[in-house]
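In this notebook, the sequence line spells out the residues, with the fold written below as integer tokens. This is how one looks.
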Amino acid sequence: MVKTPPKAPDVLVVVTSVGTEEQALEIAHHLVESHLAACVNILPGVKSVFRWKGEVQQEGEFLLMAKTVPGNFERVRAVMQELNAYELPEILGFPADPSDPAFAKWVAENATGIRNSADDEEIAREK
């Protein structure tokens, strides 16, 4: 009999873009410190071409890719929207299926959405 490996937890990648590195870091730190995302990649040097208010625009941006679990999407979206200076920020969620089971487990363990007092003490020591 062939033993099937356990199913990996579901992983969701939530993408947004911002205009400054400062905004990118603020969003990333907030999401990870609050356990809404296990990690956030920040990709600098992104060029975006888009139509806004009837005109074609081109901007340099920072792209954020937050790894989380599907149950955190609304809270991650709210943080991205609140901390983003854009009038209409791009916020897209993509299921990461399939994903490496060990990585998916790590994401699920670190994106619980529950902040604990030990985290607050560690952050205070780092500042």
